[in-house]
Amino acid sequence: MVPAYPALIRDYDSQFRADESYRAGLPDLQNGPASLIVGARAPIQHVGISNFRLPIRYQTRPDSSHRGGEIALETSVTGTVSLDADRKGINMSRIMRSFYAHSDHLFSLKVLEAALDDYKADLDAFDARIQMRFSYPIRVDSLRSGLSGWQYYDIAQEVVEHRGDRLRIVHFDYVYSSTCPCSLELSEHARETRSRLATPHSQRSVARISAVMKGPDKIWFEDLVELCRRAVPTETQVMVKREDEQAFAELNASNPIFVEDAVRAFAHELQADPRIGDFRVIASHQESLHSHDAVSLLVDGPTFAQASLDPMTFAGLRA
Description:
The protein is of the alpha+beta class. It has helices at 20-24, 93-100, 109-122, 181-194, 221-231, 242-254, 259-272; strands at residues 44-59, 70-83, 128-141, 148-162, 165-179, 202-213, 276-285, 294-300. A hairpin with an 8-residue loop joins strand 7 (276-285) and strand 8.
């Protein structure tokens, strides 16, 4: 009886090396003819890879003596290109290879744009995008005790080329405390009219700022932190002693804020910065009074304008 399959060697050949002619003969289904396309013959806006991780070196903002430092952070990278309707697919490993070719450089948007150019050319795509996500540490002083600790900021940087236009975008999460102005007034009313001890409710809150960077001047991550602190100074604290906790209570009482106030306060600072173009601010006050969150979204310019919201737009903001 003839066996269904020939007797194949089952041992892994660790000595085998693929030469150029061997690689040329390997099947490549993703670059096959249009007849292999499954489903609708439609263009795809984003196709690529998400969350491949590697260490990237970032520069910190120079201090008063004009000296800057470097920090290496684990970074999650998403890279995509667009795909014409008559093309089967892409070789996704080319995105990683293009990015790795630039990964040893000290990070800058120019490096990110060079990586984008490389894999856009490698994959013969008309649109392309790279997004890098990481958590950036900044040393923060306590309010009164003289202690300090590391505050971490979730940041994403993105370069997008769409229909010949290139955008540089930063996404930045800022976590703060929000004291309800209404609750504060009601608490004071109880004290004044009935001599009743009452405390206003406040909660950990988060704002996600997405902004198009414009012009030649660099926006440092430290600049974004300071911008947010000017808008809403009640940033959550790292190292706290009793005098710091008291100071934070006073700071909150001096800056009560509704979620509508928060997005407008951030917008005011963003509009005043000449390095920032279109932007979007999303805020979520994760209520201690209610079992739901109070949320708000403010958009300036067409880049982030949209009629429909992703179902996770607000749910994705967790402080």
